[in-house]
Design brief:
Elements lengths: L1 H13 L2 H21 L8 H4 L1 E9 L8 H17 L6 E5 L3 E7 L4 H8 L5 E11 L34 E3 L16 H10 L26 H10 L5 H6 L10 E7 L2 E7 L4 E2 L3 E9 L5 E8 L1 H14 L9 E5 L2 E4 L2 E2 L7 E8 L1 H12 L6 E10 L1 H30 L2 H27 L5 H30 L4 H33 L4 H30 L3 H4 L9 H4 L25
Parallel strand pairs: 5-14, 6-12
Antiparallel strand pairs: 1-3, 1-15, 2-3, 4-7, 4-8, 4-11, 5-13, 6-7, 9-10, 10-14, 11-12
Length: about 600
């Protein structure tokens, strides 16, 4: 059993190039993704880029309490508003139990953002007049996929005929129709039909019924201008999404954007039929009897019940997409369910291919379209990029001095081995930079001053791992072993020490990230990231590189500048085997030699 084990170990030792090739491929792939995405520098936080920081303090309203659920809901709504201004770099987060911090980087209209973050959200139910995909070519479904029947379910939506006695509106979360226009009709025709406003008929005639909401000239909006806006709207562009539907009055028709399965759709919407404040309660439930899966149940107020019954009764007589109503929050369509019959009684269910998270998110929007708490502005601070730049310059200078001292120590003490350490530090720095650049657009990571401090601290942690391994190798050489077996025998003990040390550092970073808020989390995140990268670099680069160098004469021969000179390390003489004395058959033995 021992021989195969030695064979596998020898095979692994003889091919350290595999690990080096693997980490090289990882670096090239990550760097390629960085350049392909166009994000070639880490995203800077507000303290480095400059901007506005707004502190809001929560106050309990009637029927609502300051708790984690309400604070999280408020953060989610504020995020929607600030990002609706086209500011993807904005940060909205809780601080303590009753404060919310909104950080808006430079380049944004801070006054407009300041007005929006703490105000009541605008939630409306608007009839859909027309909808179509709006995004880059090749991502949109074919218009031929549009449902042809007035009550046919859209892709991802389940039919609303279930065992429940309560009529339902069915939706696939945000499941807009794939048709190019309202059943092939020009947008102008749909608007004119909306302006005609005849009384709803109870008998469906197979043709498309006019839009039900009374609205002269499409709710006061000029038809030609609205048609031009709808035609020109490109919801794949953040600027277009930010402007669509933001300033529309409830009584006017408007345009808006909504997203479903990473595809943006544009909508032409009629005047608001139901106000979001008339939703008394909304909750996500799992339908175990009807088999509809996750769905959202809504309960309306007295006035809202009548309005909702009127609009659903009129929409049910129409064909897709004019049998849909758009649930619009702050100018964005968050869902567009269709109806098959009038929904009376003040209660409705929205069913479809919901996940639990999607159903809960829609329920929160319906319940808290208005913020669940009121907020009082505590402070508005303007952070200048000049101040952050000075602090960053000082931090980078401190990091450069620290790195120079570490390199000087390695060169003086380890000599040739310092080249291995510096190469490993360079690989770690490249990986850290590329990953930070990619994490900006991926998860919104922003490099702030505490994060820079975390990267500086990581220099010492990474260098410590190299020192542990180098000292283990030198200990083996002091015991009288040559370099190649010393490299392999030192690795198991060094590996154990490195893993324990990095685990403690990562655990401290994880705890700090969980229990803190704000910019301290940037320090913890960077420290944890660089600690993980230290393990990757040591295992896939430092150890294989030492295995290769142990075969080179400069290091294997113990050159005095290699850092592995046996004489300089005070090594013991190598152990030698002695032969047994010859037996009597070999002849007499000299008593002196005996």
């Amino acid at each position: 059993m021992a021989a195969p084990k030695r064979g596998r170990s020898a095979s692994a030792q003889s091919k350290p190039g595999r690990s080096l090739v693997l980490i090289l491929i990882a670096i090239v792939a990550l760097a390629g993704g960085m350049f392909a995405s166009g994000h070639t520098t880490p995203r800077l936080g507000i303290d480095l880029a400059g901007g506005t920081s707004i502190t809001l303090k929560a106050k309990a309203d009637q029927g609502s309490a300051i708790n984690k659920a309400n604070m999280d809901t408020a953060v989610d709504i504020m995020n929607r508003r600030v990002n609706g201004l086209g500011v993807s770099e904005a940060e909205v987060q809780t601080q303590g139990s009753d404060n919310i911090i909104v950080n808006i980087p430079k380049g944004t209209n801070s006054k407009e953002a300041q007005q929006q973050v703490g105000t009541t959200a605008k939630l409306y139910f608007r009839p859909v007049l027309a909808s179509e995909p709006s995004g880059p070519a090749g991502q949109n479904p074919s218009p031929s996929a549009s449902p042809s029947g007035g009550s046919s379910p859209k892709p991802g939506a389940s039919p609303s005929s279930s065992g429940s006695s309560q009529p339902k509106a069915s939706s696939g979360s945000t499941s807009p129709t794939a048709g190019a226009t309202s059943q092939g009709r020009p947008v102008t025709d749909a608007l004119k039909a909306d302006a005609a406003t005849p009384s709803p008929s109870s008998s469906a005639s197979g043709g498309t019924k006019p839009s039900p909401t009374p609205s002269a000239s499409a709710g006061g909006a000029d038809i030609s201008k609205l048609q031009a806006r709808y035609t020109a709207l490109n919801c794949s562009k953040p600027a277009d999404r930010a402007n669509a539907g933001q300033k529309a009055k409830p009584g006017d028709a408007t345009v808006a954007c909504g997203q479903n399965k990473k595809i943006w759709y544009k909508y032409l919407l009629g005047p608001a039929a139901v106000d979001g404040t008339e939703v008394k309660k909304a909750q996500a439930i799992f339908d175990t009897q009807g088999g509809s899966g996750w769905q959202v149940q809504m309960t309306f107020t007295g006035g809202g019940s009548k309005k909702f019954a009127d609009i659903t009764g009129q929409l049910a007589t129409k064909q897709s997409p004019q049998n849909e109503f758009g649930i619009v929050l702050d100018g964005e369509v968050v869902s567009s369910p269709f109806v098959q019959q009038a929904i009376t009684g003040g209660q409705a269910e929205i069913s479809g291919s919901f996940t639990q998270q999607e159903a809960q998110s829609l329920a929160n929007v319906l319940s808290y379209g208005a913020l669940p708490l009121s907020f009082q502005e505590q402070s508005v601070t303007t952070v200048t990029a000049a101040l952050g730049g000075e602090q960053l310059h000082a931090g980078l200078l401190a990091g450069a001095i620290g790195l120079a001292l570490v390199v000087l120590y390695l060169v003086v003490y380890y000599r040739g081995l310092s080249l291995v350490a510096m190469a490993s530090l360079l690989v770690s720095a490249i990986l850290t930079y590329v990953i930070m650049s990619l994490l900006g657009p991926a998860i919104g990571f922003a490099l702030n001053l505490p994060a820079v401090c975390g990267a500086i601290v990581a220099i010492g942690i990474t260098a410590d791992s190299f020192i542990v391994y180098f000292e283990r190798i030198r200990d083996e050489i002091r015991e009288g072993r040559t370099l190649r077996p010393a490299v392999e025998r030192a690795w198991p003990r060094a590996r154990r020490t490195i893993l324990v040390s990095d685990f403690v550092s990562f655990l401290a970073a994880a705890v700090l990230f969980i229990v803190t808020v704000g910019k301290v989390q940037g320090f913890a995140f960077t420290l944890g990231l660089t600690t993980l990268l230290d393990v990757v670099v040591v295992f896939l680069f430092t150890k294989p590189l030492m295995t290769l160098l142990a075969r080179r004469k400069f290091f294997a021969g113990g050159h005095k500048w290699s850092g592995l000179d046996p004489k300089g390390l005070g090594a013991k003489p190598p152990l030698r085997r002695t032969r047994r004395p010859a037996g009597p058959a070999s002849g007499p033995v000299d008593p002196k030699e005996a």
